UniProtKB/TrEMBL annotation, chain A:
The keyword Heme does not apply. It comes from the Eukaryota. The keyword Nucleus applies. Belongs to the ubiquitin-activating E1 family. It comes from Myripristis murdjan (pinecone soldierfish). This is SUMO-activating enzyme subunit 1. The lineage of its organism: Eukaryota, Metazoa, Chordata, Craniata, Vertebrata.
Automatic annotation (TrEMBL), chain B:
Its EC number is 2.3.2.-. GO terms for biological process: protein sumoylation. This is SUMO-activating enzyme subunit 2. Residues 545-581 form the SUMO-activating enzyme subunit 2 C-terminal domain. Residues 448-535 form the Ubiquitin/SUMO-activating enzyme ubiquitin-like domain. Residues 556-580 have a biased composition (Polar residues). It is an enzyme of class 2 (transferase). Pathway: Protein modification; protein sumoylation. Heterodimer of SAE1 and UBA2/SAE2. The heterodimer corresponds to the two domains that are encoded on a single polypeptide chain in ubiquitin-activating enzyme E1. Interacts with UBE2I. Residues 214-228 have a biased composition (Low complexity). It comes from Myripristis murdjan. Residues 8-408 form the THIF-type NAD/FAD binding fold domain. Zn(2+) binds at C159, C162, C437, C440.
């Protein structure tokens, strides 16, 4: 679907040209047009979701659909900036709608209060890209399986306290372009003086190079086999965040929620327990994840949402505009160290 | 037992709600930063910005909507932030941080200062204020996909000015006036032309052929003769371009013929220039009109501004813009001057037309208005996501500072692609202060090479103390045993000295000057090194500065930042007039936020140093100092 630039409106209006000027100068008009023809689904309007929503709406996608079954709580008002303080008790997606729309009236923003689990397959298939935050592992795996085979770009992301990650599945064959400087041939012949007697070639000229990248499914990415010799050898270079992610996803599956500061003591203990179980089941050393992480993965930290939401938002933009090399396939952020790594997990 | 308030330890959460912080700038980074601060739990925030909202800000400065265009950024940012956090205590200042009201005492009110700026002059200034007040400062910048954050703490880390940052590149006068070889030379020429015709005339912005061009002479005697002739002629010929234009009634065709035909023909007589270069081809209005083809409408898929017209199209554009600017000038009355502004359509049209006509004359491919606007207006492309990431990192550093964990603070670089160690975000340990930093050393001192007989006091004040050494309101005394006051920051006090030469005051080789900026609590001792031997177009040199040079070519690593936005591995020069220096190339450590459409703020350039090949030690889990390997200056 997104290989075609929106045929209805090839012309960028003056309003768009003025508003998007600074980004058109960065990623070019073609990229902007592709964005303009793209529809995105965003699941989850917590701290991370709000950041992604903002970034995509500002970028100028055609439509952004917000899906969230949660209600606005006191905590949500602190966590994100789209929900008005008066919206307590309302549905989070619907409460975010007005402010989201104000960010850019040229984008069609919609909001639905349903559980993503309750949505039929068809629902997901109407989009060019799907972005899942705050979702259970099972849901993410299911939606990824459903969408990526239909060339719908799939993204997942979460923030747990100081930690955050994003994952992308752009399909088996994601085509994109990269802009490279044109190599200028040196002047021929020594008889030419310091400046050859011919028309000047602009040294700043560039050329677009076509490339393809291949992505695996989320299921494959999460089910890496660590028992093989090769995998064991690579453990040393593997970000531990990958294992932390497993722990946090399991917590979410088992408890139906994320670690809650209100139940710090019990949740901390459970986290340590789950850590032990997960590492054992993956057949990796229990030492990989020390106890340290436990007190730093509660609640969505706003600056961490900003960082992860920024990277995730930009990945969605890149994928939709088919411009620039996508990160493959995980990005992990550790807010305590300021470390942000991109790494690939999945079959080779 | 650890107690959490949200994600944070209780003690930290408590100190956040009581401390006061200052955000300098409410643009791209500022909006994101304000949002993060408020959501993280900071309660007392002051934000200052002198600028107003422009429609081109709306793609990323998300606290602003279309209806706010024209309003104060600081004010609207505050109002929008209060919408999602009504209990925050936010004070907004629509003002310049360089205003003396914001003195050291003012800065001392804050536990933390965070810059969200886009120009070097303000960064230098805030750097000094924070050193003087001994308040931690978090510096940051972005450009396109790249960004960085760092922490500055007096005595502990480098200050912003510890590492010399190459100044903006300028082109020699004869390149601009006689032998342009790149589009940028023609664009600079066109901006100079605008000022000469419609704006503030500047002796450094001549557009007419330079007869004293050393390259034009076949032998040294001729060069000397040319130089003296040019100086003498000056007295007779110094009918300013503006006066001449006025005398013709700003007749666009007469102007056209002088600039694009007569002056070019004059250049052709300087035949040595064209021995090894392709000679320029003068334009003839009448001929072009006769040959004009109706402009083909290009398929409407591109932006209108991205079209490149034919030569006649630019002739007409030149004519039209001259006429419009002429009436703008008339409307303003006697002695009026226009200030060039990229967002003023006739001003931009004028530069587009004049630059393209000149490019065509010198056999360069003409460029679209869109591209010329980028270069002439020093536009830095900007997006929301980069700013969002950087602003997030700023707050995280801030939390470390407030927790008393300064040793865990880092400089963090945001790359476009992951480096060899798979890092997209690269933290680096902070460097200690530089022992001979001319700002934060205990007794800062520099040596400046200049010609005491040819350097005026006002030159020392404006170009050296203010522009080069970042002072805002300098006071200078000569260390001559008498403490003779050379420059006083009090208005009018030493105005009589302005056009006198330094030698008139007995300043000579080996003299020492004490320069103070009391607002910045900054004293700089200047050793004067007299020389008659400076390069052409160079009026002073700071001993110890790296010479201006083109950046080395990018290394071959694929991992390296590919700054390939079609632009700009070459150093971009200042294309601005002195009152409005808006060259913004990128700084070591500090990239820029959004570019304001400020008319009066002096902005100086920065240079980007990108971490290309980090030499990381294998046994460290974290990167130690990542030395910069390549310098890239871009607009």
């Amino acid at each position: 679907m997104i290989d075609m630039i929106e045929k209805e409106e090839p012309i960028i209006s003056e309003e768009e040209a003025a508003q998007y000027d600074r980004q058109i100068r960065l990623w070019g008009l073609d990229a902007q047009k592709r964005l303009r023809g793209s529809r995105v689904l965003l699941v989850g309007l917590g701290g991370l979701g709000a950041e992604v929503a903002k970034n995509l709406i500002l970028a100028g996608v055609k439509g952004l659909t917000l899906l969230d079954h949660e209600q606005v709580t006191e905590e949500s008002c602190r966590a994100q900036f789209l929900v008005p303080v008066t919206a307590r008790g309302q549905n989070r997606a619907q409460a975010s709608l007005e402010r989201a729309q104000y960010l850019n009236p040229m984008v069609e923003v919609r909001a639905y209060p349903d559980r993503p689990e309750d949505k039929p397959d068809d629902f997901f298939l109407q989009f060019d890209a799907v972005c899942l935050t705050g979702c259970s592992r099972d849901l993410m795996v299911r939606v990824d399986q459903l969408c990526s085979q239909r060339n719908i770009k799939v993204f997942c992301g979460d923030v747990y306290g100081y930690y955050g990650y994003m994952f992308s599945d752009l399909g088996k064959e994601h085509h994109y372009v990269e802009e490279k400087p044109k190599t200028v041939k040196p002047a021929q012949g020594s008889s030419d003086g310091p400046e050859a007697k011919k028309a000047k070639i602009d040294p700043n000229e560039t050329t677009m190079v076509k490339k393809t990248a291949s992505f695996c499914s989320l299921k494959e990415a999460l089910e890496v086999d660590w028992t093989s010799e090769k995998a064991k050898a690579s453990l040393k270079r593997t970000p531990v965040d990958y294992f932390l992610l497993h722990v946090l996803l399991k917590f979410r599956t088992d408890k139906g929620r994320d670690p809650d500061p209100q139940s710090f003591a019990e949740d901390s203990q459970l986290l340590r327990q789950i850590r032990d179980d997960v590492l054992e089941s993956l057949a990796v050393s229990g030492d990989l994840l020390s106890d340290d992480f436990v007190s730093y993965c509660f609640s969505e930290m706003s600056p961490v949402c900003a960082v992860v939401g920024g990277v995730l938002g930009q990945e969605v933009v890149k994928a939709l505009s088919q411009r620039d090399a996508p990160h493959r396939n995980f990005f992990f952020f550790d807010g305590r160290k300021g470390n942000g790594v991109v790494d690939y997990f999945g079959p080779n | 037992m650890v107690q959490l308030v949200g994600s944070l330890r209780k003690e930290l959460a408590d100190s956040l709600s009581s401390c006061r912080v200052l955000v300098v700038g409410a643009g791209g980074i500022g909006c994101e930063l304000l949002k993060n601060l408020v959501l993280t739990g900071f309660k007392n925030i002051e934000v200052i910005d002198l600028d107003t909202i422009d429609v081109s800000n709306l793609n990323r400065q998300f606290l602003f909507q279309k209806k706010h265009v024209g309003k104060s950024k600081a004010q609207v940012a505050k109002e929008s932030a209060l919408q999602f956090c009504p209990t925050a205590n936010i004070t907004a200042y629509h003002d310049s941080i360089m205003n003396p009201d914001y003195n050291v005492e003012f800065f001392r009110n804050f536990m933390l200062v965070m810059n969200a700026l886009d120009n070097r002059a303000a960064r230098n200034h805030v750097n000094r204020m924070c050193l003087a007040a001994d308040i931690p400062l978090i510096e940051s910048g972005t450009a396109g996909y790249l960004g960085q954050v760092t922490v500055i703490k007096k005595g502990l880390t480098e200050c912003y000015e510890c590492q010399p940052k190459p100044s903006q590149k300028t082109f020699p006068g004869c390149t601009i006036r006689n032998t342009p070889s790149e589009p940028i030379h023609c664009i600079v020429w066109a901006k100079y032309l605008f000022n000469q015709l419609f704006g503030e005339e500047d002796a450094d912005q001549e557009v007419s052929p330079d007869t004293a061009d050393p390259e034009a002479a076949w032998n040294p005697e001729e060069a000397a003769a040319r130089a003296t002739a040019s100086e003498k002629d000056g007295d007779i010929k110094r009918v300013s371009t503006k006066e001449w234009a006025r005398s013709t009634g700003y007749d666009s065709i007469k102007l056209f013929n002088k600039l694009f035909k007569d002056d070019i023909m004059y250049l052709l007589t300087m035949d040595k220039l064209w021995k090894k270069r392709k000679a320029p081809l003068p334009l003839d209005w009448q001929q072009l009109e006769n040959h004009a083809r109706p402009q083909e409408d290009s398929p409407g898929s591109g932006l209108k501004d991205q079209q490149v017209l034919g030569i006649w199209g630019y002739c007409k554009l030149f004519q039209h813009s001259v006429e419009t600017l002429r009436s703008q000038l008339e409307q303003k009355g006697d002695g009026a001057e226009l200030v060039w502004d990229k967002d003023d359509p006739p001003a931009m049209d004028f530069v587009t037309a004049a630059a393209n006509l000149r490019m065509h004359i010198f056999s360069m491919n003409m460029k679209s208005r869109f591209d010329i606007k980028s270069m002439a207006g020093n536009i830095i492309p900007a997006i929301a996501t980069t700013n969002a990431v950087i602003a997030g990192l700023i707050v995280l550093e801030g939390l470390k500072i407030l927790s008393g964990e300064l040793e865990s603070c880092r400089s963090i670089f945001l790359n476009k692609c992951p480096n060899l160690r798979k890092k997209l975000l690269v933290p680096c340990v902070l460097d200690p202060p530089s022992a001979n930093c001319y700002v934060c050393a205990s007794k800062p001192e520099v040596t400046v090479k200049l010609n005491v007989h040819k350097s005026m006091v006002v030159f020392l004040q404006d170009k050296i103390l203010k522009e080069r050494f970042g002072m805002v309101a300098p006071d200078v005394q000569i260390e001559d045993g008498k403490g003779t006051i050379l420059i006083s920051s009090e208005e009018g006090e030493t105005e009589a000295n302005n056009s006198k030469f330094l030698s008139d005051f007995g300043i000579r080789n080996g003299s020492r000057l004490q320069a103070d900026d009391f607002l910045q609590d900054y004293t700089l001792l200047i050793n004067v090194l007299h020389t008659e031997d400076l390069e052409k177009d160079v009026e002073f040199e700071v001993v110890g500065d790296a010479p201006d040079k083109a950046p080395p070519p990018p290394s071959n690593q694929e991992e390296t930042n590919s700054i390939t936005n079609g632009n700009k591995d070459s150093a971009q020069p200042s294309t601005s007039s002195k009152g409005q220096q808006r060259t913004e190339s990128l700084s070591w450590l500090l990239l820029l936020g959004s570019v304001p459409t400020v008319k009066y703020l002096a902005v100086t350039s920065l240079n980007l140093t990108v971490n290309r090949t980090p030499r990381e030690q294998e046994h460290l889990s974290e990167d130690k100092h990542e030395p910069a390997h390549a310098e890239i200056t871009r607009v």
